[in-house]
């Protein structure tokens, strides 16, 4: 954990990622699911921001996500720039059962697009889908998640839900199509996730990893503070972390850390 | 979506008096309900040089210092302001005796409720000492009358120290057992019905191993100290007290000592029952705060056993809710849950509640406010202290772009409780309550210093955080594990931290922090404000046709208006029984009321303000005042599309968008719609009159009579066309010209649909003046200018960022203005002119007309009536009456006879207009014949732009010289005239 503190050679590509979103949409749970594949009542209260790291393997590269999980309460908003500055990626989370949380998410996206790093990769995540699904388990999306997602639309449409009472759908306040349309329009990655079941969580980070201009980051770091990072191309098989490709196939028991 | 707050503007640097109060941990006025009574009676305050010693057999030395009466408290501090101090409620003083000492020594012996004798030798001059004594006597009397004296007995029973002291050392032996209320209730002071307050720790154990913490010996030391130096309300802090605090308070005593050291005990003492009442009154009430609190209850020190039980959770809920009810503006901020949870381990709910009050109000001001400005400010101060004390680390952080706050913000916000293992954090909290907020800075600096070498290796925020995390986890380890000296090995890293904090950073004083805060405050406020401005603009649903800069200007105007007339508190004002929520939602949007809107509009629309050009021989300035008129109210409701009686930033932007980009036809329609109250596409006769009135309002300061004539023509035509186009036969209607009593008979139709848009348009277009008004002038009378208008000294408020400072100078400026005005008046150089809102026809058709006679309120027409009121008024009249035109004489003369036909009967207003026109025409003729000024020259002139300009110039000059004579005369006349009456 303290490898970066000592400034030693870090073989991974470091990606700073920030989680934003209204209070209680499950930002911390999303991180916890990703980092330690757990779901639990949050143990650490988020004051300012919690900081976690997770290493991932994607193809031949190792990514080291530095995740800043920010406090959701409105009054902490003005502190957010401190955390999203220099971030290469952001996950903006909303709660599919709460319409207002999407509005807040949109305003975060706007803010990021104006104020943050211009190349920032933003993913929109509608969390808590387990609450609006008939059954908790669903196969993880493959790497071509976009097309899969569209196929899922059927289940999100009320009435067409096969063999289940419409009741859980009533909780849904944000139709998938609406969020998807917005995400497309704003140029965001889009996922519906459940930190509880793990659905879609790893996909977020996979897709972000794919979209991030890693070469760019490498070039930047090579030139400046981190000469060791140049050699970060090793397969990193010995690293314990998330193998994003594997996870992309079976998302449930992805993490071996 | 956005809330806009001007709260930061209201910050005032504490006065010297307030600083003294803060120093002595006195409840600030207002937070204490009891102060209402005392404030009536004008609290006497006095300080006097004194030497303090205790009546105990010579344990401590005497200390020279200052003794203060700040009723209802008696306070003392030694000269160095840190060795010795006390704050004692007067009600605990039971006896005051003048000591029979050597000659020339004036000494008092104060006996407290606890039987302790405080000897103070008053070293000031005799009369001062006498005065002090009599004040003390009076103040004590008042306390006796208030019945506070009787409260003491009951109150001290709630304090653990009483039990501790009364049972001597037996309690210390019981320390490690956790059987809560040990039975030392026997003995002493009659029947005890209530026992001392305590926290969850009594039931769920205190964190840490009591043996390791050496609870027993700490308790013994404290028992001795408290016996000789007073306790709870009468605690006197000698150097030993601070030393004992620095080695860590014993768990059982901790809560009470926090209370006593922070001064929150005085709040609890003087507000008995308030906590319970607050909860009772607000039972079942929900708010954004209570919702937020619910989310965090299970996330507050969850590892502590007490918060895995319902008992702990509900205590935490009650305390946080009670505070959010007490201070709805602050409500609840994450991190308060951690403080409250921590504090509740050692304190009862009521104690915790008052401690929270002191924390949020005095010790950590602004930390938890909605803008969190206090937090941001102290982060900035901390950064500057790091720069000063640890420049190498600071530079390294700059080089690798690491932000100190990512780590240090939670330190400050949660008093290190969230960062360090609890047992260590609580010791820092002990010092914090004892020595004040500077402790947070000292510890922060020490952390950085101790980790200095490693910090110089870090490359990014993440590394910084990890390093800090590892360091905090190792605080219990030996600081010198490899030392050969076992005593050095025994020193933990935490002890090292405290040593470094208080030894090496003792230079950090409260004063230094205060002055650093002062230094950075405006920077922080500015950045918060520009942040909220940016997000407010970003959050607009639509910018309309404005660009972002223009929206920014609208925001600035709104902001300034809000500074002048703050909107009502946006925080959930009425207690809601059920949560309707979801629709209206959590973040209340800032909306302004009519009054604020008037100020806002006066920033933007030229006709929504009265601008007087004042010349007094020393200076020429423009005084800006708010104009009030129904038209502005109408606009307010016209823009209030959601019919909520208040306008949001979005409403204002959309509203302005609806008028500022209009062309001729759109403007006509806009103006029409604004007056069509029921939106049926027709104006009633009343509405036509109101509309005319709006015209007159907008044109009230126009120079010359072109506009007046236009309005009069408009009315004539409107009623003519209106009558002509009415579907039913109107034969009964007309005539009765100018006959007022006939109006009641017509009021039946006055609220019927009368004039449609097409007709209105036709009437408007028939008039060149009105046409040009709608073509360009209306839209351009809304001007988005940088709010601090540099040319206008009075409203010139510098950049918004310095509004506060300029408010201060504004008063100065006003005084200066008044002063120069007075001089100007006495030497006859004082003049006031109204600045026209549109100002188009000054230079075209109406060259000679320079001043309108119209006044803001047509009906009262004060300018004529109150001619004698002041010299400035008379100037106005003189100047305008002397420069009337030929043009108008002819025009209205033609128009007049028609007006009464249809209009005169309806409204006294119309009559007033007509009357005025008549009056003025006559007036003008009279004046024209006068030799005064160049008016007769003007009469003959046919318009020529160049000449006009010359004349304007000449006229302005004439104001400086020629007219002042007239002024003088008028003034002299008045002076002479009045005594005659």
UniProtKB/TrEMBL annotation, chain A:
<protein>
    <submittedName>
        <fullName>Vacuolar protein sorting-associated protein 21</fullName>
    </submittedName>
</protein>
<dbReference type="Pfam" id="PF00071">
    <property type="entry name" value="Ras"/>
</dbReference>
<feature type="region of interest" description="Disordered">
    <location>
        <begin position="133"/>
        <end position="173"/>
    </location>
</feature>
<dbReference type="InterPro" id="IPR005225">
    <property type="entry name" value="Small_GTP-bd"/>
</dbReference>
<keyword id="KW-0547">Nucleotide-binding</keyword>
<dbReference type="GO" id="GO:0003924">
    <property type="term" value="F:GTPase activity"/>
</dbReference>
<dbReference type="InterPro" id="IPR001806">
    <property type="entry name" value="Small_GTPase"/>
</dbReference>
<feature type="compositionally biased region" description="Low complexity">
    <location>
        <begin position="154"/>
        <end position="168"/>
    </location>
</feature>
<dbReference type="InterPro" id="IPR027417">
    <property type="entry name" value="P-loop_NTPase"/>
</dbReference>
<dbReference type="GO" id="GO:0005525">
    <property type="term" value="F:GTP binding"/>
</dbReference>
<feature type="compositionally biased region" description="Low complexity">
    <location>
        <begin position="134"/>
        <end position="145"/>
    </location>
</feature>
Automatic annotation (TrEMBL), chain B:
<dbReference type="InterPro" id="IPR050302">
    <property type="entry name" value="Rab_GAP_TBC_domain"/>
</dbReference>
<feature type="region of interest" description="Disordered">
    <location>
        <begin position="729"/>
        <end position="749"/>
    </location>
</feature>
<dbReference type="InterPro" id="IPR018247">
    <property type="entry name" value="EF_Hand_1_Ca_BS"/>
</dbReference>
<feature type="compositionally biased region" description="Acidic residues">
    <location>
        <begin position="928"/>
        <end position="954"/>
    </location>
</feature>
<dbReference type="InterPro" id="IPR002048">
    <property type="entry name" value="EF_hand_dom"/>
</dbReference>
<dbReference type="GO" id="GO:0005096">
    <property type="term" value="F:GTPase activator activity"/>
</dbReference>
<feature type="compositionally biased region" description="Acidic residues">
    <location>
        <begin position="730"/>
        <end position="740"/>
    </location>
</feature>
<dbReference type="InterPro" id="IPR000195">
    <property type="entry name" value="Rab-GAP-TBC_dom"/>
</dbReference>
<dbReference type="InterPro" id="IPR035969">
    <property type="entry name" value="Rab-GAP_TBC_sf"/>
</dbReference>
<dbReference type="Pfam" id="PF00566">
    <property type="entry name" value="RabGAP-TBC"/>
</dbReference>
<protein>
    <recommendedName>
        <fullName>TBC-domain-containing protein</fullName>
    </recommendedName>
</protein>
<feature type="region of interest" description="Disordered">
    <location>
        <begin position="925"/>
        <end position="981"/>
    </location>
</feature>
<feature type="compositionally biased region" description="Basic and acidic residues">
    <location>
        <begin position="175"/>
        <end position="190"/>
    </location>
</feature>
<feature type="compositionally biased region" description="Low complexity">
    <location>
        <begin position="866"/>
        <end position="883"/>
    </location>
</feature>
<feature type="compositionally biased region" description="Polar residues">
    <location>
        <begin position="854"/>
        <end position="865"/>
    </location>
</feature>
<feature type="domain" description="Rab-GAP TBC">
    <location>
        <begin position="248"/>
        <end position="436"/>
    </location>
</feature>
<feature type="region of interest" description="Disordered">
    <location>
        <begin position="849"/>
        <end position="883"/>
    </location>
</feature>
<feature type="domain" description="EF-hand">
    <location>
        <begin position="663"/>
        <end position="698"/>
    </location>
</feature>
<dbReference type="GO" id="GO:0005509">
    <property type="term" value="F:calcium ion binding"/>
</dbReference>
<keyword id="KW-0106">Calcium</keyword>
<feature type="region of interest" description="Disordered">
    <location>
        <begin position="175"/>
        <end position="194"/>
    </location>
</feature>
<dbReference type="GO" id="GO:0031267">
    <property type="term" value="F:small GTPase binding"/>
</dbReference>
